[in-house]
Design a protein that fits this description.
Helix content is about 0%, strand content about 25%. The protein has about 130 residues and is an all-beta fold.
């Protein structure tokens, strides 16, 4: 869960790679996965879709026991708010959900009013256009 990810576990991140535009997403789920390499797109074995992942710098050390690297993977499930706006997460968000606008390499991000189902900030709201006949 994202609340269990510590800054020291992600301190060797040099880049976050987004596989899709996350500006329209209220939240993404994040997890620390054990992966065989520091860089490159990891294999994805969950339901839903991977929306991004972290790349590690050359100073990142592999686990002595498994030879794998801890890297963050960002993902969404089929029942998440982006696909089912009035569903389970119309209000609230999963425990591992983080507002993607608060993420950066080595920064675990945070929940926001938007990620928890509140209204978007005024800067992110689309202007409403009224047509007059």
């Amino acid at each position: 869960m994202s609340s269990l990810i510590t800054e020291d576990e992600i301190s060797h991140e040099i880049e976050l790679v987004w596989l899709e535009d996350v500006t329209g997403l209220d939240y993404v789920r994040q997890s620390l996965d054990r992966l065989p390499s520091r860089r490159g797109k990891p294999a994805y074995h969950r339901d839903g879709r991977m929306v991004g992942y972290a790349q590690l710098g050359p100073m990142a050390k592999a686990s002595r026991s498994s030879g794998t690297f801890k890297r963050r993977v960002f993902w969404l499930l089929p029942h998440d708010r982006d696909s089912v706006p009035d569903g389970l997460y119309a209000r609230g968000a999963p425990a591992e959900a983080i507002d993607p606008r608060t993420l950066g390499p080595g920064n675990r991000g945070r929940k926001t009013e938007r990620s928890e189902g509140g209204p978007p900030s005024p800067a992110l709201r689309r202007p409403r256009i009224k047509l007059s006949w």
